[in-house]
Amino acid sequence: MKITKKKPDSEFLIVGGGISGMAMALLLAAAGRSVTLLEKSAVVGGCMQRFVRDGIPLDTGFHFTGGFNHGLPEMLAVLGLHDDIREEEFRTHIFLADRLKKVSFSTAGVKDVCDHLCSLYQDEAAAIQEYYTVERRIFDSTPIFKLREKSLSEMFYLMDEDFITLDDFFNKENISQELRTILGAVAMCHGTPPCEVPLTTHCRISFGLTDHISRVCGGGGSFISGFQREAGRMGINVRTGVTIAECLDIDDSVCHRVRLTDGSELSFVSCVMSLHPMEMLKILPASMISPHFRSRISSFEESCGFFSLYAEITPPLPDFRQELTSWLSVCDLNKILKPGNSTESGMGIVLAHETTDDGRPCQTLTAFESMFPDETARWDKTSTNRRDEGYAEYKARRIETMKAKVTQAYPELRNKLRVMESASMLTFRDYLSTSGSGYGIRQKIGQHNLFGRLPVNNFYAVGQNAILPGMLGSMVSSFVIFRRLIGENSYWRLIEQRLGKL
Question: N or C: which terminus of the chain carries fewer CB neighbours within 10 A?
Answer without folding.
Answer: N
